[in-house]
Amino acid sequence: MTETAPSLHIATIIEKPEREVYAFVSDARNLPRWAQGLGGGEVTQQLDGWSMDSPMGRLLVTFVPENLFGVLDHTVTLETGEATVNPMRVLSLDAGRSEVVFTLRRGAMSEAELEADAAAVAEDLATLKSLLEG
Prior knowledge:
Elements: E1 8-14, H1 18-26, H2 31-34, E2 43-46, E3 49-54, E4 57-63, E5 74-78, E6 83-86, E7 88-94, E8 97-104, H3 111-133
Antiparallel strand pairs: 1-8, 2-3, 3-4, 4-5, 5-6, 7-8
């Protein structure tokens, strides 16, 4: 049996109510403003998600349906058809503060690739925090 490395949870605290953070993050049109890895171009709604140009080529982002639990899990599908599910949550800490948690799963990544991805996600969450608290 192959040993699976644990997931890595990357989080930030945002000084805004959970529903406000959730509304901003769940709107895929906002992705270019804070999720650098997904590109900075125009986001186009498709039947099955949101399409955009990225450094990895054209991709499709599909979120789980809107919900009251702060779940923002989303699938990123590359032009090759390769898809990655990204678990993400917005948790209410109190009336005016939220925690955004992104779970990075190792899969077949090397230690260096995992560290690079973790740094990129942390930077994206810092940008999100800055935008929302700005």
